[in-house]
Give the backbone structure.
Amino acid sequence: MSEAFDVRYTAKLARLELTEEEVAKFQAQLSQVLHYVEKLASVDVTHVEPMAHANPVVNVFRDDAAAPWFNTTQALANAPRQAGQLFVVPKVIE
């Protein structure tokens, strides 16, 4: 499999139409990226703990308990537009 094929194949997957100049440019960039990845393979990571994020991610969960809430009149009190007991919002899809 040739390196130029990789660029064309990737472009096809992304539904991109590339000129020959763009294929050559991106092939050079892809080669640089692959060369860098090869360098990373030589790094000793035996004492590095695997992680999914650079920063710690913690989910904060609370009990799902019912609590007092607005009634319809209170909820609609500051609505810029309302119709009956409903909020009126701008149309998003035409």
User: Anything to note?
Assistant: The chain has a mean pLDDT of 87.
